[in-house]
Amino acid sequence: MTISLSASALSLRRDPRMLKAPPYLSFACILIGLIWLLVLPLDEYSRRTYISENALLPGQVHTYFGGSEQHVFRAYKEEVAALSGKDTHEINNSIEEILKGFGVKVGRQSYTYGAAGGAHSGENVYGILQAPRGDATEAIVLVCPWKTIDGSENRVGVALSLTLARYFKRWSLWSKDIILLFPPEPKVGTQAWVDAYHDAHDPRHVSPLPLKSGALQGALAIDYPSDHHFSTLHIIYDGVNGQLPNLDLINAVGWIAGNQMGIPSFIQGQYAHQNSYQDRLKTMFRGMLSQGLGNVAGAHSSFIPYHVDAVTLQPWGMGHQDEMAMGRVIEGSFRSLNNLLEHLHQSFFFYLLMSRDRFVSIGTYLPSAMLLAANFTIMAIFLWVKSGQAPESEGDKSKEKTTALDTSNTVERDMLLPAAIVAGSHALGMIPLFIFNRLPGDVLPHAFAIFSGISIVLPLIVSHLLTSFYKPTVQQSQLTKSFSLLVLGLSLSTLATLNFSLSFIIGLLATPLSFVQPTKSQPLRWGFAALLSLIAPPTIAYTAAMAAGADVGDLLRDASFGWNVLGVYTPVAIWGVWWPAWTVGTVNVLGFAAA
Amino acid sequence: MLFPIRLLAVLATSLFLPLASAEHTNNWAVLVGTSRFWFNYRHLSNVLSMYRTVKRLGIPDSQIILMLPDDMACNPRNAFPGTVYSNSNRAMDLYGDNIEVDYRGYEVTVENFIRLLTDRVGDEMPRSKRLLTDDKSNILIYMTGHGGNEFLKFQDAEEIGAWDLADAFQQMWEKKRYHEILFMIDTCQANTMFSRLYSPNIIATGSSELDQSSYSHHADNDVGVAVIDRYTYYNLEFLENQVKDLSSQKTVGDLFDSYDISKIHSNPGMRYDLFPGGADVARSRLITDFFGNIQNVEVDQKENGALEEELLELGRTIAMLRQKEADELNQYNNATSVPASQPTEPVKHIRGATALTEDNWWTKKVVGATALAGCVGLWALGSFLET
């Protein structure tokens, strides 16, 4: 039985139809991967969010922020308004004075980062409100940058934070210290502070913190510039490098806002979410794009790489909710975080949100990116097998292969040139990675334009050199493509577990690389080349910048800033994985003989 | 033919009855909470409520073993430091006055619990941490925490199985460590915990069936957590309202009949089959037989005459010893001459207990009879004058 089975398996292996299957299989992988992603927002595949950490107990406490606190808030708002337009040092002096006024220990920290030729410097001021009966081993953070994400002054936010701090000081039920952080702006200041808090800062740029508390257990950031009453709450949760806070935190804050305070919340800027398929898909795509780019979304983002779960709360729209309601949402959330006994760990860290209350977890969505990555690996294995078989067609131009045809139709593989091409292109990828992260900001757009030109011409030159000096064989063409796709499949499947969206986006943009191959027809060959240039990384970068209504220079400055200040690794994936694969693919189409 | 059988039956019951209804002489309570952490506040308050109830009905702290894995009163999250409440009206602080926790914190383990029940403890174990019961002890065992099918979790670290519990009870029975047990448990799938018991004289009850959760009753929004579980809440409601003092004649059956599934939100279970006489006898047991402290006196079976003889003998021995001591003292005083200048210590005379002697026995009887007769005379005179 087993003999006959293995015999049939062996005969199946030799079946010529087996060699025809992989490209179709590969195509099926792409198709299924895409459809997989598109069906995720359906009710059958996504789940309602729920709170799985028992200790959080969201909304189970009465919140008392209000009443006379309103007068305190008004007073602080006056003081904050008086600071408008002053420099950071003066602002911090005033905040320090206020904090010290109600008995909070205050520390200050200065920092200077360099990125894209410019210097980002400033000074953080922060206060530690010690838990009266706690043991100072844990802390939660309330972050309130002086500037909002849009760059306007976070006036209401700062006044509200000060009022809350004064109010929190009167409670004796904190099990964790409460840290109030006032960075001058949401991105750099927070990063410097979090780095220094964990002693992971570069002492040349960032000064250490004079005052510390226990391990950070969670953080909320307030982004509240406008004075008018609001209707809904925007919860921003994306972290650096597409890392996400524990889903329990988003759910708990959303639950407290919605069910206790009656303030609906939304995510990813989808203000008018009708819970339709389209809206869910749009929300998911926005989330994926933000995750894929990996840049900071708010003051909370820098906390997440240190496993401190954090979100930014942004009041939105015109409505009847006032600052006190916002304060109560934060009070309720802090009471929930205060209940925690250990780090948030029960719920998911890897998820895609479709709306505030629907999500899919990693087990459900990961196969789509994995299928895209598998398509490259399947093609790579297929080409490897094919390259080891002597071609039966009369189109065979090589002489040495005929000798190996005696018993089996296997041939020796000549791997030096393919390996050299693939390794060389990946090595070349280091050049754009280096220059775009080192050049000053105003040179960047020009440098990128020049690089784009070189990137287009480079494959032409290489293929011309190859064809004129080397006369590469069909086998070498197959091996080059095989190696390149193998590296791509390997990198993308690894990346999918770290940053699903980035892996998916790159995988999707690179899918044509699986199917383009050298042809004898010259127009088709140039057609392929034209198609490839459409999906070239520089082309995509220009298109994306145009679609976002931004200058490509801004995009590059952001990328440089992300790399130098925040440690974003997206450029490595682009210049170290995607661009080399694209270059090899184009060289392969233009410079090799057709089968 | 019928007559002798009937006679035999009567004889058998008359022989058996005193054995079965042989009364207990002491009451013990083992109250166990098995969860720690702030969000399990209600389990601690469940246990403390039960503690308060058994104390109210007279079981002294020395006969209550209280196991609390966490200290909610001193948790920094507690908005009312030093207190534990089981109701959001916060009318009664369960922690406030006079509470004796025998096993606390990480001492609450499965091993310690089983060692407590079976009294397999080292010499160093203080008496306050031991269950010093005998075959005349009625024990209330109350447990609460997070459980599942045939297990109850202890502190996130370990769990006790239904078989472990059953075997522990059997060991207790074999070692004559109880007379009757009322086992009460409030946890998810609680009824599975007593499904494996096989030792006699146990009444068991639990809050919920297999695959059923046990629910909390209500939360206190200032404390910020649920403060009591439903099953315990309604047990307490009955005990507080119906069993006001030790004279209450409410039975275990009354308590079980008070369970209302629509209020408890799960199906409470009872088990009578281990009890001799089955459901009827078990249900007729008084609540105070388990929750109260009924100190029945066990009358010694020896003849009264023999006791008196012994007492008299003891009295004679004491008298003899006294005489001997006096003689020795006299001898000592005579032998040593004390210098006049030195102040002598006054000889202290400690009045000991009066030894019993035989001579004035009749006199006492006569005096007593006269006093009694006088009282009767006075009463007769009084009632005559009143009419």
Please specify the SSE layout and strand pairing.
The complex is a heterodimer of chains A (595) and B (387).
Chain A: H1 2-14, H2 16-39, E1 47-48, H3 69-82, H4 88-101, E2 105-115, E3 118-129, E4 138-143, H5 155-168, E5 177-182, H6 188-197, E6 215-222, E7 230-236, H7 247-260, E8 265-267, H8 277-293, E9 310-321, H9 323-339, E10 351-355, E11 358-361, H10 362-387, H11 416-428, H12 430-438, H13 444-469, H14 474-498, H15 500-510, H16 512-515, H17 522-534, H18 537-547, H19 552-566, H20 570-591
Parallel strand pairs in A: 4-5, 4-6, 6-9, 7-8
Antiparallel strand pairs in A: 1-11, 2-3, 3-5, 7-9, 10-11
Chain B: H1 2-20, E1 26-33, H2 41-56, E2 64-68, E3 103-104, H3 110-118, E4 137-144, E5 147-148, E6 151-154, E7 158-161, H4 162-174, E8 180-186, E9 202-206, E10 216-220, E11 225-229, H5 230-242, H6 252-257, H7 261-264, E12 269-271, H8 278-284, H9 288-291, H10 304-335, H11 361-386
Parallel strand pairs in B: 1-2, 1-4, 2-3, 4-8, 8-9
Antiparallel strand pairs in B: 5-6, 6-7, 9-12, 10-11
Helix pairs in contact in B: 2-5
Number of helices of chain A: 20
Helix tally of chain B equals 11
Helix and strand content put the structural class of chain A at alpha/beta
Q: What order do the helices and strands of chain B follow?
A: HEHEEHEEEEHEEEEHHHEHHHH
What's the overall average pLDDT of chain A, rounded?
87
Q: What do we call the CATH topology of the domain at 22-291 in chain B?
A: Rossmann fold
Inertia-based shape of chain B? globular
Give the strand order of the largest sheet of chain B, numbering strands 1, 2, ... along the chain: 3-2-1-4-8-9-12
> How far is the first residue's CA from the last residue's CA of chain A?
40 Å
How big a fraction of the residues of chain B is strand? Answer: 5-15%
Query: Could you list the spans of chain A in which at least 5 consecutive residues all have pLDDT below 50?
Result: 393-407
State the helical fraction of chain A.
40-55%
Average pLDDT over all residues of chain B: 84
**CATH class placement of the domain at 22-291 in chain B:** Alpha Beta
User: What is the chains' assembly state?
Assistant: heterodimer
Largest beta sheet of chain B, briefly? 7 strands, mixed
